[in-house]
Every structure is written in structure tokens, then in C-alpha cells.
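Side project, low priority. Logging it here so it doesn't get lost.
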Amino acid sequence: MSSATRPTSSADRDSQRPDQTVSQLIGFRLDGEDYAIAIRTIQEIILMKPITRLPRAPDSIEGLINLRGTVIPIVSLRKRFGLLTREFDDETRTVVVNSHGKTVGLIVDEVTQVMKVTADQIQPVPIAVTAIARRYISGLARLEDRLLIILDIDKLFDPHDLDPVA
């Protein structure tokens, strides 16, 4: 039987399908841009709490909060990415994540939605993106009319950066 007339096996069909592995992400905004992180890295999302400032902490570390008896460092993603800072408002949230076995709060402008993205929707980071920014980004996803920047939480922090405050 020629390959043209041979029935396709399920293995053949699977190799022809786009990758349908699904990742669940939490979307958020920073400076008008859409970002996301894997839901598996998130412990919870909370309203802003009073932050205790720390002397001589790295610039992106805003300080510490007490989260139900646990003290956690709070990081401004705006500062981490070199964006202009702004006043916190009713939409500002702290996304509490686990990175390198440590709990860290990330300040974001607004949490938008939970979404599912298939692996074939995720594209690699273009070479044109600076090496510093590429280090933090695991991929880009085009969803409807917008581009979503998917961050790799573990690459955002050197575990030693969090030692003095965690």
C-alpha cells in the first residue's frame, strides 16, 4: 500500500495537530500593557495592604507586609521593569506568588482575568527584545486583538535578591 492510500494512524494524526497542551494564566496590566503568569505559581491575589519600607533595600522592593502572620517582601513590577511609578488606586493588587521556594508579593496595576492558552498560541520572544527583558519573558501569546507578555516568575528574581528581606 502506498503512503498516499495508507490510512493515517492516530500517531500520524497527533503529529500533525498543533500542540494543544493548555496552560492556565492570570492576566494583569502594567502601564497599559497586558502580562500574564502561570496560575500554578500564584498563592493568592489581595488588595493593597500597608507596606513597611526597608532602608537600603533594592529599589524594586517596596518593603514588607504582614499576610496573616507571615511577613513577605513586596516587589513593584513597575520598578523592576524600569517603568514610571504611579499612585496605587482601587484597581492595584498584590499578586502573591511562590518563587524559588519563597513567597513574594508583586504589585500590579490591575488583575484582568484567568485565561487558558494552548502551547501553539505561545510564540518565542523575538530577538529584537532586549536581553534584559527577554530574561524575564517565557513567551508571547496573541489573544484576539492583543499581545500578552507571559512572564517566568522564577527568572524575575535571583533567589539571593530576596534573602535579605525574606
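Brief comment: Confidence is low (pLDDT under 50) at residues 1-16.
Revisit when time allows.
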